[in-house]
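Q: What structure does this chain adopt?
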Amino acid sequence: MKPLTFSLAIVSALALTALTAAAQDKTFDAGKLPPAADKKGVTFDTDIKPIFEKSCAKCHGGEKPKSRLSLETQSGAVKGGKNGPDIVPGKADKSPLVYAVAHAGDEDDFMPPPKNKANIGPLTKEQVGLIRAWIDQGAK
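A:
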């Protein structure tokens, strides 16, 4: 390999590594989140599925869910989508989904998006708190 080609390959690899590390090292400010609900024994089927059906399943359901993230089932929600898991069971403050639905992280990641075709409004603080409690309790 010629020295210039080799140098370009090394620089490209280092740049890709730096960009990948920066993308994976998203830091979230948990202080911007509503508190977790006090409810014990929160389950997907009873408590979370109705929220997702009303506010999320239009885009994250069906045969071709956006970003390959299906929120129709507990296993689909925990599995995540094309960007990997969005839920870290036991750690709502480390779960990107919580920041997205709380509109507390990156504006590009807000869910539902502020301007969406279905006119679905943002989740309430109580709904976000219930999702936080579910995740903190193991996302079962």
